[in-house]
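Ticket #4471: structure export looks truncated?
Reporter: QA, pipeline team
Priority: medium

Steps to reproduce: submit the single chain below to the structure queue and open the exported record.
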Amino acid sequence: MTPKVFISYSWSSPGHQALIRGWAEQLSGDGIDVVMDIYDLKEGQDKYAFMERMVTDPTVSHVVIFSDKVYAEKADARKAGVGTESQIISKEVYDKVGQSKFIPIACEFSDQGEPYLPIFLKSRIWIDFSSPEAVNQNWERLLRAIYGRPVFEKPALGKPPAYILSDSKIPPSPAISKFNALRQAILQGSTGVSVFRRQFLEACLTYADSLRVRATPQEETFAQKVLDDCTKLKLVRDHIIDWVLLESEALPGDAFNNALLNFLEHLAGLKDRPAELGSWNNSWFEAHALFVYETFLYIIAALLKTQSYSTLHEVFTSQYLLPEPVGGQETFFRYESFHATSRLLEEVLAPGKRLKSAAAELIRKHADRLDLPFKAVMESDLLAFLMALIRPDGWWFPQTLYYALYNYQFPFFLRAAQHKHFKNLVKITGITSAEELKKTALDGYKRLDVIHWYDFNPGRSLWELLNMEKLDSIQ
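Actual output as written to the record:
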């Protein structure tokens, strides 16, 4: 059953309000139905009746009380809305001493190191949210309290704990807490953003690396293992995209660009063997090759969403340093190296059927983000294809566009018919006129012999999807 939580807090300051709203959004993201005045109290409603209903409503499993100095003072003085709300809460607390419906959160401490809590809550066990580090450390504790899933449970007599019986050797992702700390640092303008970012990205890479094959796999079950690992790696994909969406919009600039390019280099390194392996087969790392490809497409989609056009130019035009070149590999590589296909997944994704692209089918099945749907991923694939057309030695096969239907149109390229939006395409490509872009792209079209990609039949031609004939045609 989905927990339902009412948030009690004071409108102490705009900064405190923003923190509360951010935590409410994070709780919602963790599967909790959040009730809060800014969401649920409408014009014309009685706010005191609303408070009393939320505090006493049996469907509300918990009341989370975010208490700072202002909240505690108003509650003890029975002042304003917090005072009325606290009267209702305190009665419930005193009447039901043994219950755990009310969870105090200490958002601020006095100079003496005491948490600012109302008198009626001082004897209750509270959770420290007084700093980004404390939030990072105690977030899981809050979730466990709400879900009623404590860290320690007394095992049934004679039965071993569940973790003893588990065969899973995959560690849980440590990047969730690291991202929460980074998010707070970015939103609060902390000087420690670079530290939190580094810790977060290292956690993502460490988790992904823990899934790399380090022993000869069983051939008869390996295709299913590749699919299982791809599913596990989707968690990291989402962490990374959450970061790109957040920082590219909140803190755009050289620091973010450099961090992203550096991360992409390390991301590409996951496609190769772990350094300690002396013998291997490249197919062992197919799951990670697909993960890198999928994550790259999502990064492009995220940057398009946040209108980070200069960053996109950097991503597409940079030469990346391979972290650990193997054998006779080149030291540097371009973005085309993020591309991947799959020969193994077809048998487990569509038994008995022939897929035009197992990699594209996997990405389509993984496309469960509401903020970046599969169509946004296809648009990023189309942009990668265009960037390959305009470079003399570029190559890219936009395999997700197998799923482009006849009526598909992509907003970024549609808008580029207007001059003001064409300038965004200029920032990405570096080509300043529509005629020059069209000519250069046409040369690439012929060089890649796109017209003879016979088995590639999206509903409309790639040239039409790029909206090439109409670019910069509207002032």
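Status: closed, not a bug. The export was complete when the record was re-opened. Leaving a note from the reviewer for reference: DSSP finds 20 helices and seven strands in the chain.
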